[in-house]
Specification:
heterodimer, A: mainly beta, 28 strands, 47% strand, globular, B: alpha+beta, four-stranded antiparallel beta sheet, three-stranded antiparallel beta sheet, 7 helices, 17% helix, protein biosynthesis (chain B), initiation factor (chain B), Eukaryotic translation initiation factor 3 subunit G-domain-containing protein (chain B), WD40-repeat-containing domain protein (chain A)
Chain lengths: 334, 291
């Protein structure tokens, strides 16, 4: 396969996301810009300009109407996907590290950083979808400060008002946003900071990646670790293939150590692991730095990876990928 | 204006080069151009372009989105990927196979160099000493086999029968000259005429002597001594030279102390390449006139 290289950023990527149909790919980076691309040919549709700091996180609703972004300029912004206009801005005392749309597109959860005497907070905003989207409530629907280790990643679960969080200590927990109570936790889910979390299609399980060099599959209801994928480098991102029994892991040497290690040592490859057998089945090279974020097309036909090197590489799988049967005729049903 | 039209400047030359375009019946567009390359030579460039239309069925919303006007930094730009932001990378392979890749050792620089050489059509890496699949410099038998690049067996000289006199008494290089009459020699040795296709000539020491032909002009005695030293002790090396210029005439005589060593040298070196030439090694024939 020949990857499409997207050079829309001047600094390292922080997150990339496909929309619901997979035709649009959103990317954000430390250079304050959010880009949107057509995934099939890599054409840039436009940019969302307005942030004044590192854009840490983005998410798009299921109708590809609104885009939400969180930045180090202490703002959360709502954008119109089609025009690139900023519709609303929420301001906080600290940076926004993670956002996620709920499945009904009605709510947005965001994590703000614990810094400068401010506690880390998780807020849920109601998105008013009537009108042109500029009429939003500046006050959160729910807000709470999770006790203990600060949260780094979060996502809505399928149960209303319950969110899944990953923490700096390696903890994975379920929170009730209306009360702010921790419903369930797994303190020993990871040994180090949780760097990414992506849900399966039906949200019954999710994958987390961590700096402790492992990625793990967790059951959403019980938070039990189902599968563990141990690698040899710190991981920055993990994604699930929706159609094949693979998980995609990306990571590499820490950015500050990159200059002192060789390309090969750095392991800047996307690794394909078999979801069930917990074995690595393939690797894709390409990035010149650690992979910061990976996203898989919702139809499973392509995947994109964003690296510390500022590139997004979009890989459309070729025939050999679909024909490959690394374990013979054994087929795994989800 | 009329003056400029009639004038042919160097800049107009390029335009005079032919340029034809046509479409073949099978729909392949052919563009034939002539250009002057860096060496000043005229070259013909034929480009064939085949366009295939790929149709995909997409959801209605997806088709709608394709019509969206570009915005932000892309505002007003034409449809289609911009080369400034979108490029196609080199082909990457994704081989899906069972078995844990993390347990596989990393290929060493040597291994990757070998595979690169093999890919470049240079063939497999074979040790010149022991024929193993490593570089000659990395040969584990380097110490025992070095000195002769064309042999594939160690020069075993322990169990060979000693047919000649004690080596210490021979006229080795650097050795003190000993008159033939003073040399210890088995009875009748000096008169011996070697069996098996001509032994050493009777003119010099009666040592088993090889005639080496097709050596290069600048091959000197030490080179041959090094080459044949691998088979056993070399008693004497003589390179035929032109009397006036001193350049080699393409032949040499190499005398061994032991016949078996000389025999093995013939087997190994005869027909092998040395200095881009293929050596011929035979027993030295005594001159017909008996000198």
């Amino acid at each position: 396969m020949r990857p499409i290289l997207l050079q829309g950023h001047e600094r390292s990527l922080t997150q990339i996301k496909f929309n619901n149909e997979g035709d649009l790919l959103f990317s954000c980076s430390k250079d304050h810009i959010i880009n949107v691309w057509f995934s099939h040919n890599g054409e840039r549709l436009g940019t969302y300009d307005g942030h004044n700091g590192t854009v840490w996180t983005i998410d798009v609703d299921s109708q590809s109407k609104y885009l939400i972004s969180g930045s180090a300029d202490n703002t959360l912004r709502l954008w119109s996907v089609s025009t690139g206009k900023c519709l609303f801005t929420w301001e906080f005392p600290t940076a926004v590290k993670r956002v996620h749309f709920s499945d009904d597109d009605e709510q947005v959860v965001c994590i703000t950083e614990q810094r400068m005497g401010h506690q880390g907070a998780i807020r849920v905003f109601k998105i008013n979808r009537d009108g042109d989207g500029t009429n939003q409530s500046p006050d959160p629907l729910h807000m709470f400060h999770p006790i203990g280790s600060k949260a780094t990643v979060c996502a809505f679960s399928y149960t209303p008002n319950i969110i899944i969080t990953g923490h700096e200590s390696g903890k994975v927990a379920l929170f009730d946003v209306s009360t702010g109570n921790e419903i369930l936790n797994n303190e020993r889910a990871h040994m180090d900071v949780v760097t990414d979390m992506q849900l399966s299609v039906d949200a019954s399980y999710f994958i987390t990646s961590s700096k402790d060099k492992t990625a793990r599959l967790h059951d959403t209801k019980t938070l039990k670790v189902l599968k563990t994928f141990p690698t040899e480098t710190p991981l920055n991102s993990a994604a699930l293939s929706p159609t094949r029994p693979y998980v995609l892991l990306g990571g590499g040497q820490e950015a500050m150590q990159v200059t002192t290690t060789s390309l090969r040592q750095g392991k800047f490859e996307t690794r394909f692991w078999h979801k069930v057998f917990e074995e690595e089945v393939g690797r894709v090279k390409g990035h010149f730095g650690p992979i910061n974020t990976i996203a898989v097309h919702p139809a499973g036909t392509c995947y994109a990876s964003g690296g510390e090197d500022g590139f997004v590489r979009v890989h459309h799988f070729d025939d050999t990928y679909y024909r490959a049967k690394p374990y013979g005729d054994l087929e795994i049903d989800d | 204006m009329s003056t400029t039209i009639g004038k042919t400047s160097w800049a107009d030359d390029v335009d005079e080069l032919e340029h034809t375009e046509y479409t073949e019946p099978n729909g392949v567009r052919v563009i034939v151009e002539f250009a002057i390359n860096d060496d000043g030579k005229k070259v013909k460039i034929t480009r064939k372009i085949k366009r295939t239309l790929q149709k995909t069925v997409v959801e209605h919303t997806v088709a709608e989105r394709k019509k969206w006007a570009k915005f932000g930094a892309e505002r007003g730009k034409e449809a289609g990927p911009d080369r400034a932001t979108t490029t196609v990378g080199e082909n990457v392979a994704l081989k899906l196979s069972a078995g844990n890749k993390s347990n596989e050792p990393d290929p060493t620089p040597e291994q990757s160099l070998k595979t690169e050489l093999a890919k470049a059509g240079a063939g497999k890496v074979i040790c010149r000493l022991c024929k193993g699949d490593h570089f000659t410099a990395k040969c584990p038998y380097k110490d025992s086999l070095a000195g002769l690049e064309t042999t594939d067996a160690p020069p075993a000289d322990d169990h060979l029968p000693s047919s000649l006199a004690d080596p210490s008494t021979s006229t080795g290089t650097g050795g003190k000259y000993v008159p033939p009459s003073m040399r210890t020699r088995g009875p009748g040795e000096s008169m011996r005429s070697g069996p098996g296709g001509g032994g050493p000539g009777g003119n010099r020491d009666d040592l088993p002597t090889l005639r080496v032909t097709n050596i290069s002009e600048d091959t000197a005695e030490p080179d041959l001594r090094e080459l044949f030293g691998a088979f056993g002790r070399v008693a004497r090396v003589y390179v035929g030279r032109d009397r006036e210029t001193g350049a080699g005439k393409g032949f040499a005589f190499v005398s061994f102390e032991e016949r078996s060593c000389a025999q093995r040298a013939i087997e190994k070196v005869n027909g092998k390449g040395y200095d881009n030439l293929i050596l011929g090694v035979q027993w030295s024939q005594p001159r017909p006139d008996g000198r």
